């Protein structure tokens, strides 16, 4: 059996993916992969996702330069969520979020509302052209 056949793909042929920073264990982002993206990620050792809005493969960092080197690919106990252990490249500290922040999980629930608790490390206008 092919290792990709063991993944439980959803009705659209996708699986949710969490990117976690190796070392700090920060959760950087959540995205989706189709079979081709997961296969390319394993083959290249860099994160390749599937963009649902653009309906195509998305090589993380193709526009921003914020590439993710993949050290481990893990599958959860139900075989329906992938975890990538990555090093975030392209800026120090690493920027994974399109808002110019280290992590996409920068909003924290506080006293009845959401509050941004992580700084913008680089203006997104200067990242994406």
Automatic annotation (TrEMBL):
A Pfam family found in this protein is: PRA-CH
User: What are the Phosphoribosyl-AMP cyclohydrolase domain coordinates in residue numbering?
Assistant: 29-106
Pathway stated in the Swiss-Prot or TrEMBL entry: Amino-acid biosynthesis; L-histidine biosynthesis; L-histidine from 5-phospho-alpha-D-ribose 1-diphosphate: step 2/9; Amino-acid biosynthesis; L-histidine biosynthesis; L-histidine from 5-phospho-alpha-D-ribose 1-diphosphate: step 3/9
Name-wise, this protein is Phosphoribosyl-AMP cyclohydrolase
Reaction catalysis annotation: 1-(5-phospho-beta-D-ribosyl)-ATP + H2O = 1-(5-phospho-beta-D-ribosyl)-5'-AMP + diphosphate + H(+); 1-(5-phospho-beta-D-ribosyl)-5'-AMP + H2O = 1-(5-phospho-beta-D-ribosyl)-5-[(5-phospho-beta-D-ribosylamino)methylideneamino]imidazole-4-carboxamide
Per the record, the gene is hisI
Q: Which GO terms describe its cellular component?
A: cytoplasm
Q: Where does Zn(2+) bind?
A: 77, 97, 104
